[in-house]
Amino acid sequence: MFQNLAANKKENAIISPFSLHVVLGLASFGAAGSTAEAMMKGLRIKHSETLLKDYKGIIDQLSKSPELKIANKIYFAKDIELNPAYQTQAVDNFNSELGKVDFSQPPAAAKEMNDWVSNHTNDKIKDLIKADSLDASTKLVLINAIHFKGKWTVPFKPEATKDGPFYLDDTNSVQVPLMFVKDSFYMYEEAGEDGFKMLELPYGSKDEQHFSMHIFLPNKRDGLASLEEKLFQHSESFAEKFGNIVKSTFKTEVEVTLPRFKIESTWEMNDLCKKLGMEVAFSSNADFSLMTKNKEPLLISEVIQKAFIEVNEEGTEAAAATALQFVYASYFEPPPVKVFKADRPFGYSIRHHATNTIVFLGVVHKL
């Protein structure tokens, strides 16, 4: 997902693989035949008797964490009646809300949906749905919204923040506020010019930690592109590589330097979904007949995500919303103090410990 959307773009980015997976997962249970097969394959999941319970289990477990709020909603046209079985699956297993809307009034319909998203993301995600993307042929809009707000287990002291250089490439830099903290953290190191360091910064109290941010820092100032290639562009998935890296971390005292940053991203994800093998879901051959009572001929017209993250001395606030629109068819301690100085482009993720779910993923190229 990251490879197709953000790798090698040299732009700051934040993506929520989890948000996209949930909204496509919700749609896949309304699909039948080859459409269902394509969506399941694209999502790398298999139909099973426990799959719906698996979704429910992950959503419920993530929702127990005080830092993360998750909301799903299906908006459907006034002339559409949902299939009762699909409605039950959506409500019981995805904790989805349901709402009817008049898509023949695009500005009012967009406002109603955008207000819902804004309310569920602490006003961080606005204008997800564009009025000009709606018309009388719009029949369903599926939305997932998530909001994360976590305080560092070991906060950065504001008085320790000092201006310093952040290198945009090997030679050019800009002066930015750099936060500083010294404490014991889990860390990974890979030596060499093409190597990198990974640092885990946990959220929550010392006794209760559900999430961590992981910072991926290339050894070279201009090494982020090769690090992205190493992490995302090989046969082994990022989740597998990430899991192996986490298993190889060691706890040590670290002097951490990290810039404050704030990023907003908007992603049109139709092409990504097609590259994942879901082309049929966007075509007139799409079969979402399990979604509505009268088996209306529906296809996916648009998949869009907006995401936001802000990192400062106190912690992190992040949010994302993904919308999927349907129309009629016509992811022992080593030697003393280590130094982890994020004064150059780096990657980051926010991971839920218990489920190993990567909720957010992104890069910082410039400040």
What does this 3D model show about the protein?
It is a single chain. The protein is α+β, with helices and mostly antiparallel strands and 367 residues long. The protein has two domains: 198 residues, Antithrombin, subunit I, domain 2 (Antithrombin, Chain I, domain 2), CATH 3.30.497.10; 131 residues, Alpha-1-antitrypsin, domain 1 (Roll). It contains nine helices and 15 strands. The strands form two sheets. Strands 1, 5, 6, 7, 8, 9, 13, 14 and 15 form a nine-stranded mixed sheet that branches. Helix 4 runs parallel beside helix 5.
Question: What does the secondary structure layout of this molecule look like, with pairings?
Answer:
Layout: H1 2-5, E1 13-15, H2 17-28, H3 33-42, H4 51-63, E2 68-77, H5 84-94, E3 96-101, H6 106-120, E4 138-151, E5 162-167, E6 173-189, E7 196-202, E8 211-218, H7 224-232, H8 238-247, E9 250-259, E10 261-268, H9 270-278, E11 298-311, E12 315-328, E13 338-341, E14 346-352, E15 357-364
Parallel strand pairs: 2-3, 9-13
Antiparallel strand pairs: 1-15, 2-4, 4-12, 5-6, 6-7, 6-9, 7-8, 8-14, 10-11, 11-12, 14-15
Helix pairs in contact: 3-9, 4-5
